[in-house]
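Hi L., both proteins are below.
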Amino acid sequence: MLKTEQRVFFLQYKHFSYLTSFVLEFKPEKIYPMQLPKVVLTILIPVSLFVARSNALAQKTGSTLVTGKVIIDGYGAIIRGNLNKKEIALVLTGDEFADGGEVIRTILHKNKVQASFFFTGNFYANPSFKSLILGLKKDGHYMGAHSDRHLLYADWTKRDSLLVTKEAFKTDLQNNYQRMAEFGIKKKVVPYYLPPYEWYNSVIARWTRELGLHLVNFSPGTSSAADYTYPEMMERYMSSDEIYQSILKRESDDTHGLNGFILLIHIGTDPRRRDKFYNKLEMLVGALRSKGYCFVRIDRLIQ
């Protein structure tokens, strides 16, 4: 069994074996026109009901839906790739800080690691970050969107309560992609979208799909995303060593290790955090590679 904090629902296609048999034996030339509606309903109604019930149950319990190649959380975001492949997608987000940019780029280049970067429009528009962005793009990394103004989509305590309208969401995201277009990054080439604050709900996931994009988020189970915290945050603060150990512990405890994992860290953090986790990145890459993992872009991880 997959060890996660969430219950996991597997798509059991065997429950539809009778449908499979029907489709395999289906011979169009033997079906009269008046029979077509019945044939279509025989296939579509059971499948539609099954998918709807599975999605509703997942959202109600905050669960995870596991398909053949990816894991989707109860809100509709892809949070993990294939559990049978020792591949990891290293994901880095950025908004106002980029102090680790050149350090990270050097480490990735030196170790021949392909990563995925998701930046806000604020980040893409910052003149100080232009050379870094161009360098990362030149190196072949995935360059994605992270909201134009780093909006908070949903209430922290009532996740189903939206804080943005559909029009505001759409305009903000389109502006993000317009900023990216100035660097020659085309929306159709980078359809995976990582929401700001990594916080969203099922409505945001649906709106994202309506724009022809796919919502993604980090895989739960490690403290890697806490690398932005600083000592003044008191109990929320996590040191780089604690974060590092949480990743190795997850790899050890999970039946599937870190297979298909989306591992998120930040390209820069508040100056009040002096213990920068990106300084441990090269050691982490080496440790995970020694266990047989390879690092791939997110579009390869969940293709």
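That was the first. Here is the second:
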Amino acid sequence: LGMMTSPFAFAMLSGTALGWRGAILVAGAILVVIVAVLRTSMPSEKLVSATDPDVKPVLHRAIWGALAFVFIGVAIEWGFSVWAVDFFRTVLHSGTTAATAAVSVLYAGLLVGRASGSVLLSKFTSHAIVVCSLVVVLAGFTLYWIGASIWLSFFGIFVAGLGVANIFPLAYALAMTFAKTSAETNLASAYTWRVTSLALLVGPLALAWLADTVGLRAAYALVPGLAIAGIALSGKVHAAVQRTTTNAADDIDLWSSAQQPSAPQHSLSRR
């Protein structure tokens, strides 16, 4: 919500007496309110790690597959958000206000997509949602990239936001779900944020390097390239998830069998 409203505030205030600096003042005031609320609502208990130091955690293939989706989702999202303004200004030749508002349109799509995520999860599997999300990203990117009109590109970036919205949350949830121990959960969580940081660094910078080499319009081919790579990877990730699920189910069956009390032995001898 903050990512959606902040560029919109810059776009709206840039034409007023306050100018774009007024948006910074508004953001500062909101930050003060957030800090005040958090200071009164944050729990004081310290988190205690449940990691067993004697167990060396190992990440399974399913978790690495989920981390790959994390990288793809974050790189696509920030490739749009960092370079959308320049794309609208230099490629589509829009005004500054429209270019800045494009980022708000992207995050409006993200907001709507994530709000509908729980509804989708009640009807479809996480794997199916991620694959369909990548297809939606491709469709939205096509409308955005063609640039037949400013409004069509606005609609395209909104659709792309809808598509990319649930990739990171679902990939992160899958990585946590398929960790079998608390040590693996901690390690998977740590790697998730490392991969996220790597995508934040590599995605926009790779697009920038390509833009300097072949131009921004051609450089944006990186986005559908990542989406297609994710779709191609989805089969292997699904197979790894199925193997992990099967192994977990076998463990549960063995555990249940071990916990069942043995039948009482009745003596056949008569008094």
